Amino acid sequence: MTSAPVGNPSRNCVSCGRSISWDANVCPYCGHDFRVAMAGPAAMQKKDSSMPLIAGVLLIICSLGYIVMGGWMMAAGTSLMGFTEDIGGGAVAACGGLVLVLGILVLLGGVFAIKKTHFGLALVASILSLGTGLGIVALILVIISKDEFT
Ligand SMILES: [Zn+2]
Predict the structure, then answer these.
(1) Which listed residue, 6, 35, 74, 79, has the most CB atoms within 10 A of its CB?
(2) How far is the CA of 87 from the centre of ligand 1 (A)?
């Protein structure tokens, strides 16, 4: 017979598998804390760091760079079109428009990162801003704080 004596019920530790006292809060063998496990996800404190906020601010700074650059390229390209017949000015303006759209996407990602929503968009925005040094930092921060996003 392997059943535990009545009055002293035991169970197996979910972490190391050894038999421990039923009402033990912490496994004496491996130190596994059952109070955390039993509390469940609902009672668990949601991790809350300022990393998404920092990432969001960095992304917004990057986005402003893109928007300023895109706007400038569009303006420069449009003014070139007035002087020349070739497509050079139009191409510059089109590139500027793309950079501008990129900037707006990064800006949205930054706002989402600050609000800790839409992890995917915050991640995409970080990748889109990798061209700047700040984007790399933002990408790392967004990935580390993935759990904080809703
Ligand atoms: Zn254990």
Answers:
(1) 74
(2) 72
Which residue from 35, 39, 9, 4 is spatially nearest to 21, judged by alpha carbons? 9
* Residues 28, 60 share a domain: no
Ligand 1 centroid from CA 15, angstroms: 5
pTM listed for this prediction = 0.64
Residues 38 and 81 reside in one and the same domain: no
- Distance of alpha carbon 17 from the chain centroid: 35
In a domain, 2, yes or no: no
**Residue 4 Cα, ligand 1 centroid: separation in angstroms?**
18
Measured distance CA(94)–CA(11) in Å, rounded? 68
**In the chain, which ranges are E strands?**
10-12, 19-21
Rounded to the nearest whole angstrom, what is the distance from the C-alpha of residue 24 to the centroid of ligand 1?
11
* 99 CA distance to ligand 1 middle (Å): 55
Residue ranges making up the domain that contains 33: 10-43
Residues 95 and 120 in one domain: yes
28 plus 57 within the same structural domain:
no
Taking the chain (150 residues) in runs of 10, the rounded mean pLDDT of each run is 60 90 89 70 61 95 95 89 69 92 96 95 94 89 93
